[in-house]
Amino acid sequence: MRKVLQSVRQIKSAMRYRKDNNVLNSLVRRKYFSTDLSRGCLCKVSYNGNISRHTQPYYMSSRAKFADVATVNNGVETRGGPLVEYERRIAEGELLDGDACQVGTLQELQRLYDQLIEKAEDCRLDKYASSDKASRSRWLWSRLLPQSSCAPVKGLYLYGGVGTGKTMLMDLFFDQLPASWRKKRIHFHNFMLNVHSRLQKHKGVVDPLEVVAGEISDESILLCLDEFMVTDVADALILNRLFRQLFSNGAILVATSNRAPDNLYERGLQRDLFLPFIATLKERCVVREIGSAVDYRKLTSAEQGFYFIGKDLSSVIKKHFQMLVGDAQPVPQVVEVVMGRKLQVPLGANGCALFSFEELCDRPLGAADYFGLFKKFHTVALDGVPIFGLHNKTAAYRFVTLVDVIYENRARLLCTAEGTPVELFENIVTISDAQHMAPRTSSRSRKNDNFDLCVDNELGFAKDRTISRLTEMNSKEYLEQHAEIFTSDT
C-alpha cells in the first residue's frame, strides 16, 4: 500500500510540475511582468500601470505550489526544496524579487532535488541507510568484481557571468538537502587541493587515483563544487580519470562556473588530454546557463575605509591595521598549511594579518597557502596592489586566487592599491578582446602601443569575477555579514 501511495504522490507531483511551468510561461508570454534590470528583478505590472515589487500573487503562487512537491517522499521529510526556500527569502526581503533567469535555474535545481529525494535509496545518498557489514560486503565485491554503477540521476552544471547568483543558488539547493545524506559543498580550489593531498598520502599504491576516487565517493556521493575553473596543467591531466572513476562509483556532481564546459581550460597545455573530461562532464550533468544581465554584487552600497587608492600608502594601512587589532601587539607568526608547508606572516594579531603585496602574491604561493592562512585569520591587510599587466601576470593569477579564497571564507580585505578594481585589470584581456582591438595603422605609431598588455584567456575571464568580488567585499552589507560571522564564532 505504501508503494502505491508513493507512486500516486509522484504522479501528482509530476503533473503539478508541468502545470506550474505552463502557468509561468503563459504569464511571461502575456506580459504580466516586466524586467527591471536596474534593480535586477522581475516586477508585476499592476492594473493602474505602475510597477510594484513584492506584489506578485500570480507568479508567487505558481512558485509556491512547489511547497507540496517534495515535502514528504520515500518516507523522508524535507523542507520543500530550493524553490520554496527562494520564495521564503523573497517574502522576508532577504533577496531581490524574482530574476527570471534565477527562477529558471531554480526550476532545474528543484527538478534535481525532486529526483534525488525520489531516488535517494538507489543513489545510496543516506549514510545511515545500510549497516557497516553491508558496506564492507559491497567494498569486497567491488574489488573482486569491478563494475560501473553510475547514478540514475544526472547532476547539474551551472555557468554564467559574474555576480549572477550561481553560488547563492547552489548553496540554497545544498542547504535544503537532508542532513543525513552523503553530501559535500566545497570550493573547486579546495577540492583539488584535497585531491592532491590524498594522492600524496597514497603515493606508492598501484593506482592512487582510483583509491582517492573511492575515498571521496564513500564520503560524499553528492558533490557540490563552486567556481569550477581549470588553470593548472596538473589538475587538467587528472580530472578526466578522477571524474570517470567518481561517476562510475555513483557520484553526482553539481557545479558552478564562469565558463561553459566547452570553454574550460581553453588553450591550456596538453588540452587534447583534457577534452575527454568535457565529454564526460556533459554526459553526466545537465548544463544550464544563467543569463542574468545583473551583477548583484554591485547592487550593494559602497563603504569607505577598506580600499585605499594611491602609491606609498604604507603608513595609512598600518594605521588602519592597528585600529583593527585594537590593544593587541602584532608579532610575526607562522601558519601551517597542507603537506607540511608553512607560511610566514610578517605581522599578525587578534585575527588580523598584515602583508605587503610582494610577500603574499609575488612569491611561489598558491590556494593551499591562502586557505591555510584563513584558518587562523579572518582579516588580511595587503599593502601595494599594483596595476597588472604582462610584466606581473603570475602575481595577478595569485591575487585572483587570493580574492577567491577571501570571498569563499567570507573574510575581510583591507588594502592599498594603485587603482580601482577595474583599473587594476585594464591591461588584462582575453584573446577575443585582443582581436577586436584596433590594429596599428600608419596614423598609429608604435609609441602608442601598450607593451604591458597581457593577452590571457583564463586571467581575462577571471578578472571580471575578481572586480565584482572586490566591489562586494568593500560594501556595507558584506562587512556587516563578516562582523556577524566573526561575532558568532567568538
Automatic annotation (TrEMBL):
What are the entry keywords?
ATP-binding, Nucleotide-binding
Q: Where are the transmembrane segments?
A: none
What molecular functions are annotated in GO for this chain? ATP binding; ATP hydrolysis activity
The domain of life for this entry's organism is Eukaryota
In Pfam terms, one family for this protein is: AFG1_ATPase
Question: Does this UniProt record's set of keywords contain Nucleotide-binding?
Answer: yes
Q: Which GO terms describe its cellular component?
A: chloroplast; mitochondrion
What SUPFAM superfamilies does its record include?
P-loop containing nucleoside triphosphate hydrolases (SSF52540)
Family assignment from sequence similarity: Belongs to the AFG1 ATPase family.
In Swiss-Prot or TrEMBL terms, this protein is called AFG1-like ATPase
Tell me the organism. Answer: Anisodus tanguticus
